[in-house]
Amino acid sequence: MGMMGSLPKPFGYFVPDIIVGAMVGLVVGWCFGPLIPIASRWLAKASVLQGFLQITVVAMAISSQLFPYSTGAPKRVVLQHTFVTDSNNIVESNYGFSVVDANSLEFVFNNAPEAAKWLKYNSELSFKEKYWSDRSSWVALYPVPFLFSGSLKFPAQTEEIRKHYQHFPRLVVQKTLSYNWNRRVHLELSLGSLSEIWTTSLNITGPLSNWSFADNTLPAPQTVSGGPPSYICRLTGQSNENWSFWLEANSSEPLRIDVAVLDQFLVDSTKELKSLFPSWADMTVFTTFFSTYHFHL
After folding, report:
1. Which pLDDT value is given to residue 250?
2. Considering the entire predicted model, what is its pTM?
3. Could you give the CA distance from residue 137 to residue 84 in angstroms, rounded to a whole number?
4. Are 67 and 110 in contact, with CB atoms under 8 Å apart?
C-alpha cells in the first residue's frame, strides 16, 4: 500500500488508507461483531460515545502534525545520475529523482534544504514543468518505474565520469539480411569500460516482428508515457563480453532502440549529493548510461 503514490493526486493520498481501513474494519467486525449486543448496554450511552468521538478527533489532530518518516520507517527516494551518450561522447547529464509514495518530491526537498541548495547552487529549487521527467527516462529500472510518480530531473556535470571510464556502452551493426518481406539486422552490444553493471534494458520501438531473445518469442508490447508501443527486454550477464543478437522487421519503417545500462558505480559528486539528504530518506542511488539508435532496415 505504501507504493500507491503512482496514482494521481489526490487519490494517491486516500486510496491506500481506504483499502487498508476497509480490510481492518471487516476483520474486526468478524472477530468482535458477536460481542456488540453484550457490550452495548455499557457502551451505548451518550457520555461514552461522546468521549470516543473526542478522543478520535484529538488523535487525528495530533497525528496530522507529526512527521511521517524516521530511520525505522524511511521515505524511499530514487536518485539516478544519467549520462546520455552518442558513440563515445557525452551529450547530456542529469540527476533524476522519483518517489514511490504519495508525498511528492517537493515535500522531500522542502525538508532537505541542503540537497535543494546543492542542486541549484544557492538559488531557489524550482518544480516547474521543464524539470519534469517521464517514465521513458527510467527504462533501466523497468518495470519498477510504473510505480513512480512526480519524477524530476536537474542538470549535472558531464566530464567527471571520464576520470573513471574510457569507453561507454555502444550498439554496433554487424550485418543486415533481407529475405521475403522480412529484414533482419545483427547487432553487437558492447558495455565499454563499465564493471559494476546490474542490468541492461533495451526499449525497441517500431515494426518488430521477431528477435533472438526469449526463444524467438515477442512479448506483449508496452506503452511508456503515452508513446508508441515498444518491446522492452532486460539483459544480465558478464560485462566484459560483447553481446550479439538480431532483430527482425516486416516493414521498411525504422527501428528505434533505446539502450539503458544501470551501473552501481557512483562518481564523487553523486556521493556528495546523496550525503546531503537526511537520515529519514532511504536513498536508492545508481548511474545510468542511456543512448538511442535508429536503424533503417
Report:
1. 84
2. 0.82
3. 10
4. no
